[in-house]
Amino acid sequence: MTGPSSSRGPNWLALSALGLLALLTMIAVGQPVITDDTWIHLTLGRAYFEQGPWLDTDPLLANALGPPLPAAWLTGALLHGLERVAGFGGLRLFHVFMVACIGLLGFSILKRATRSIPLASLGTGLFIALSGYRLIQLRPHLFTLLACLLLYRFLIEPEKPASRARVIGSIALLALWANLHASFLLGPILLGAALGGLILGLLVGSAEKRQEWQARARPIALVLVLGGLATLLNPTGFEQHLAYLAAGAETPALDRVADEWTRFSPFALPPARVPPSPLVWSMLWLFIVITPVLSLLALRKPGESSSSEWNRGNVDPGLVGIALVFLLGALIAVRFTWLGFFPLLLLFTYLGRSRWPVLPWASAAATLVLLPAFFTLGPWPMMSGMLPTSVAGYSLPYPTAKYHAGAIFFLDDSEAEGKLFADYYLSGFSGYWLAPRIQSFVNGTLNVSPEIINANRPIRERRGEAEGESFTELLDRHEIDLFLGTRLPRTPPSGRPWYSTTGHLNNTEGWIPIYRNLAGALYLRDLPRNRASLEKIATYYEERDIPFDTQVGFEPLRVISENPRWAILHGLIPSYFDQAVRASTGLEPARRNSAMQVLARYYTALGEHEAAIRMDTRLARLMEEPDPSQRRLVYNLLHAGRFEEAAVVAGQILASPTASALSNHLAESALEIVSGQRPQAEIHGLAVFTPAEANAMGQEVPIFIAPRQRP
Asked: What is this structure's pTM?
């Protein structure tokens, strides 16, 4: 190997590239709280803090099968206590600290195994790529990542037999782990895989090596037995072990959790912005090919191909066992791709024991090349998807727009009660602020029956589930009192499932609109059991001089007219809306038409179909390129039940050579619905806005007020 002076260049180059990658990763990790399940753990942690880990009921869910399984009760209590003491800023700093510990420990393990700073830097960068999408989520799995690395350092790393202190520490770690995260069984699996590798090594190793491996195997076996028993020291004993084995069985039924239990598909290219990234997919393929080969070479008897450069280091058979077992884990589900660290460690251990003089510079250059690959083909597009674009946005405790904070805080302030249906990812946030007064239909704990899970998708698609059942009948069968619809009717932004539910109950008999802004709407079931909530809502609006009729509900145009300031602050309209209204009746054609376009877009987004029809009917006559106006006309005419007029405009779109792809698709769908080829219920699934139009409106409107710190 090269000396210290000749290594200085590649060392600094590799460390600089890794430092930049780590810095940007930490910026993504430390952003406002974006992990949906964090809110669930905070809420359950509040209950655990007050009542202990044995809860009588589930405070979050209206249809819970029973109390939540306290698989991560200690994590919840820890996060809640931290949030009480240090606020959301403290949670974010703790998140950064945990990820920093994981990264530094991973680098230390790689450095000790490879004896090379450039190789350790490259390996750490690849580890960040493997685990990046998990690292940015503040969830109990961070403890599992750290615990796996600690257990390897304490017991398995090939130095010398573990000391008594490390054995005791490992047993304590396993006991603690069983109360922090349901994935604690990875600890015994790690130990069992290492022990199996060492036992196999005893059959083929030299006498000297057999003595060393036997000495190392004894403490591992001891911790495997005693630590395994220590994992029973949790609130539910052995039941916790069964819960891990059953995890994920029902999750795919939601058709949403693309970053959880989806299996790795080696023969299908990964879709965009969904785990695994192309870089991670390629790395897993490399591990699939090379890990078995390196494992066979490591276990060859002395004298067999002894001159082989790949066999010179006599790699630890304990690591071989872990690499083989954990490679299978990485292939089981995309949430476990970080387990690829151990096949990566096996490969880099071989590389570090080689005598190639160009290896330091090659490793440093590869670390440098990893940077653009990480940001284009790696997990960065997913990690940075919610990053604020300004310092002010980064300083917020959480992204208010993502969690529809305006609607949630309205329910909090109005003191409404009942069972709430909201999109899956919102239920943790809503529960944090509203439970137990308002409980969710379903959330990430999946502590509900399969019947509840199966109803989730039909509700978002605005249809019944049973034969002959209507959408509203499905809501009534599950006794849903409050419905939070979200998102603009736009074309999907990614490969993930996408549903716009904001208008699902607009003008629906038996449901009263109680709150509206640009990207969401709240509805209340008009039944005697909800009368008290309706009166509280009416009082809330009366105290703020907001017009509200208990028979008709929330009327956006009336609110905009009578209290425009409230409408602007709560995200119904942009601040220049009144200027657009005045300009829409002016004489200057360009300014008038531009103002009418603005009004028509917002009327459409707010479900004011008749007002939008009037505006776009004028625009279609005045504009030389009427495509956006005609597209909105078809959409609003369908929603207003004016099918014959919608068919006429759809025909005009299809006859136009300049019509956009979205307009043509909408026109074709409209004609199929009008002719009866498609059910009328599919009207609610049609998109009318392009991504550019939807994003522009979102930037023009302060969709949600920056929330104050609430107790």
From this structure: 0.91
